[in-house]
Amino acid sequence: MKIAIDAHGGDFGIKPNIEGALSCLKNLSHEIILVGRDNEIREELRKLNINELGPRLKIVNAVQIIGMDKEPVEECRSKPNSSLMIAAELVAEKKADAFVSSGNSGAIMVASLLKMKRIRGVLRPAIAIPYPTEKGFSLVLDAGANTDCKPWHLLQFALMGSVYMKNVAGIANPKVGILSIGEEECKGSALVQEAIPLLKKANINFTGPLEGRDIPFGQADVVVTDGFTGNVVLKLSEGLAKFLFKSIKDQIHRKFTYKIGAFLMKKIFTDLRNKTNPDEFGGAPLLGINGIAMVSHGKSNARAIYNAVRVAGELAMAGAVAKIKKEIEASNPVEEKEANDEKI
Asked: Domain 126-280, what fold?
């Protein structure tokens, strides 16, 4: 597999992207394409004592950079020679099997839509976040790409999420739940109540509404919601995890006996930190586009980039895009007028 990496994406500049790429070459069999300013990439490689690229590492020059805090559509349209736009173009032209970026998430969505287009029948691509749970992980989508959704959007998210969990997590019949304020179908927003009948009729294992507190216990393998709610769930969970670990660390330093106890439980703490560390998942796939794009966190380190490439390769080898196409075509959930009225 050939995986392109946006070398300039992220808050920390080029360094973690280059280090992540080198880790991929060491531990994975993929070919890596670094997309960015050729001279800057080579300079960073020299700092790491890499003077020759080797057969599995390639550089594609891109002179422009998409700003992390800029308006996505304007940036993508005004910077066609940016590292992000060219990385997406490589996938569109079948010169790469997937691309990874920790850059502006809105711009990743725009670049993917401009270059790779949507899968036919998909109305809204969704960011699908792997959420750590007691049983492994659940897929929460959408996690921020679409703040305002219609019921049929949630149905498509459910279909795409099910395909992902079948092919990446190896779950034969993934359970799908819709995020609500109660387990009763009569509760929840108008969006939730209108989406439930569609989910019941679909060819998925829909188990009904679930509450936010149910997600960490893995009650559903796929959790469907609108992008506004999904992003709040994600950011709140990240903040809560950091708060809890900081609080435990502060308490441990208060007494010597606490330090002894912490030493004895070191492996437990390490395992728990790894399980809740977003770097271990690498990023979130953008489902619904006609190609594979991984949206990594803006603060991604080399470990996160490595894992994003790993997951991107798994999706490509599993033929996830073709399988999502098949599910969407079979479901045909949207009335013709509704489809024609859609604007993204």
From this structure: Isopropylmalate Dehydrogenase (3.40.718)
For 226-260, the pLDDT digits (tens) are 999 998 998 888 888 888 888 888 888 888 888 88
Same CATH topology for 1-122+288-325 and 126-280: the answer is yes
Strands 57-61 and 98-101: unpaired
Q: Assess whether pLDDT exceeds 60 at residue 115.
A: yes
Q: What is the largest CA-CA distance in the chain?
A: 69
**Adjacency order of strands within the sheet including 31-36:** 57-61, 31-36, 2-6, 98-101, 293-295, 284-287, 126-127
Homologous superfamily (CATH) of 1-122+288-325 is Isopropylmalate Dehydrogenase (3.40.718.10)
Contact, 135 vs 218, CB < 8 A? Answer: yes
* H helix runs in 101-203, sequence order: 105-115, 151-167, 190-201
Domain ranges of the chain: 1-122+288-325, 126-280
